[in-house]
Amino acid sequence: MLNTFADFITKHLKTDGHYLVKGGLWLSLGRGFTLLSGLVLTIAMANLLSKEAYGTYQFIIAVSAIAGTFTLSKMDKVIVRAVARGKESALRSGFNTQLHWSIGIIIVSSVVSLYYWTQDDKLLAYTFMTIGLLSPLLVGFQLANSYLIGKQLFKESALLGFWRKPIPVIALLVTLAFTYNPLVLAIVYFASNTLMSGLVYLLVVKKYKLPRLPEVNLVNLSKHLSFIAIVRIIGNNLDKLLVFYFLGPVSVAAYTLAHMPIKMVEGLYSSLYQMSLPKISQRGFEELQKLLPPKVKIAFLVTLGIVVLYIATIPFFFRLAFPTYPEAILYSQALALLLLSKPRGFYLMAFLAHGMKRRIYLSNLSLPILTIILLLFLLPLYGIWGAIFALLIAHLCVNVILFFTFRYAKTPLQQNLVQKNI
Length: 422
Fold this sequence. Notes:
Blueprint: H1 2-13, H2 17-48, H3 51-67, H4 75-84, H5 90-100, H6 103-118, H7 122-141, H8 144-150, H9 154-164, H10 166-176, H11 182-207, H12 216-247, H13 249-280, H14 285-321, H15 328-335, H16 345-353, H17 357-382, H18 384-408, H19 412-421
């Protein structure tokens, strides 16, 4: 049956259906397991913690995510690209480089910790200091999965995740049995994830006998991508920080829960991007300009169906899982429109695969910059709806920008040929 479906995809979508089905099956299983684990934890926290405590916990996670960008945060994408091109030493080299460039995380976390120390909030100060020390290791260890994706070892990636991902969830659930303190929960979250990611990293290095050789090109492209990521992740988390500042932790809790199912669905697209990057890296850009647009159109139509289904069914899910947050239902239905922008990610994978830095900068920076500007203007005026409007408008604008950027983009080689003809 799967072979028949793969043949159908190959025939009608003009792509490698067997690769897509085989890889997609394992990545979907891994992603589905991650979503299920996260859903269990979110339901437990949202129902056991007070709205203030849950909002504070999400505030800590958002600040930590911003602090985590002050390193080579996009080393994972560069490793996938390098490994797909046969550079076996990319993982260990990338891990060492990642640690060297993680001093920014420690500095930012220390500044935040010092701020709360001066505000006589020593528990929050200790929390951010602990997270600052653990985050560089966590980001580095998680690169192991990038090696597996680059080697197209999707089954191994999923299987390792099946035993790694439940441990942090179990650790947090056990902690909830003893305390509802959001600061303690945040520390347990980072500590357990760092420990399990470290074990996976050691297993991958040992199993595949990976060499330790310098990979100079990793740093160059990763620096560009990571600078972009700083602005992007700030844009992605600034909404929570501003909601916390203007409206308080209760509003953060409702807004985060409204966004949570959307992010889970977005995670499925991340799996498709991971699976497509090794293949895209092996094709010429002119070929991709012909192949990708029809596939993106099909992905958009499928996504439209998902959005309609989501809007129709999400009220039942919220009434069952989060009965104390009825206000989040309408927010979540509106945020579902963000999913219509996800197919554009395949264009970004093409830019990344061919190291087109200017296009990468334009495509990636336009969204967070627009989002930040719109958030600062709309959120104080319209509250949570202002944040939602800001996200929708920014994504719509970037869809238009990215379409034309991809359609008329030229590689450096193509540009040189044009100049010579002139």
